[in-house]
Design goal:
Helix content of chain B: under 10%
Number of helices of chain B: 0
Order of helices and strands of chain A: EEEEEEEEEEE
Helix content of chain A: under 10%
Oligomer: heterodimer
Largest sheet of chain A: 7 strands, mixed
Largest sheet of chain B: 6 strands, mixed
Radius of gyration of chain A: 13 Å
Distance between the termini of chain A: 33 Å
Strand content of chain B: over 45%
Number of strands of chain B: 12
Strand content of chain A: over 45%
Number of helices of chain A: 0
Largest interface: A-B, 28 and 25 residues
Distance between the termini of chain B: 41 Å
Radius of gyration of chain B: 14 Å
Shape of chain B: globular
Shape of chain A: globular
Order of helices and strands of chain B: EEEEEEEEEEEE
């Protein structure tokens, strides 16, 4: 399967713990996006990278959140000192700037539950 | 700021009946418009898109959407639904002159097709 993959698919953690999610984009895609989807809402943009550079961050991305894409391939999203309000589905998407429209392809998501 | 409104959170319909899922967006400037579908336990998939040109766009599985600039709408329709169309549908907008990372999604409409 050459689509976008995310790991883990589910994560349950206790409040105050740190968690890290990984996203592997489609191999030739140079852009990578993170979104968050809470219950009953559509996905909300968090941040995106072009190659290894983080080009935009939403105000939703508090100081407890950090994202990296060190070699321009996979990306990690870390949440420090998790809070119950962080419970959500975290979606990753990738795209190629050389393609028409820069269409974003989404992964299956990581569902985070903070107890 | 742009916003997307999907008025119906849930739409139950019988198999082979027609369906319309409504989407309105806030901006009067040029936008790119999308419909994504999310099947249970799967990631978001692009269903169809409007960039420019013909205001009626079609997907490969029988859905169509019509861009109406005066009403700022992009409603999704299918003349005869199947059980397999049961999924959640998200309307999204992107400002072609704005951030390359910023897809704005509606809250989604859950389509439930009953036999």
């Amino acid at each position: 399967d050459t689509g976008v993959s995310q790991d883990p698919r589910h994560k349950i953690t206790k409040r105050g713990q740190n968690v890290t999610f990984r996203c592997d984009p489609i191999s030739e895609h140079n852009r990578l996006y993170w979104y968050r989807q809470t219950l009953g809402q559509g996905p909300e943009f968090l941040t995106y990278f072009q190659n290894e550079a983080q080009l935009e961050k939403s105000r939703l991305l508090s100081d407890r959140f950090s994202a990296e894409r060190p070699k321009g391939s996979f990306s990690t999203l870390e949440i420090q000192r998790t809070e119950q309000g962080d419970s959500a589905m975290y979606l990753c998407a990738s795209s190629w700037t050389g393609g028409y429209l820069n269409e974003q392809f989404f992964g299956p998501g990581t569902r985070l539950t903070v107890l | 700021a742009q916003s997307v409104t999907q008025l119906d959170s849930q739409v139950p319909v019988f198999e082979e009946a027609p369906v319309e899922l409504r989407c309105n967006y806030s901006s009067s400037v040029s936008v790119y418009l999308f419909w994504y579908v999310q099947y249970p336990n799967q990631g978001l998939q692009l269903l169809l898109k409007y960039l420019s040109g013909s205001t009626l766009v079609e997907s490969i599985n029988g859905f169509e959407a019509e861009f109406n600039k005066s009403q700022t709408s992009f409603h999704l329709r299918k003349p005869s639904v199947h059980i397999s169309d049961t999924a959640e549908y998200f309307c999204a907008v992107r400002d072609p002159g704005g951030s390359q990372g910023n897809l704005i999604f509606g809250k989604g409409t859950k389509l439930s097709v009953k036999p």
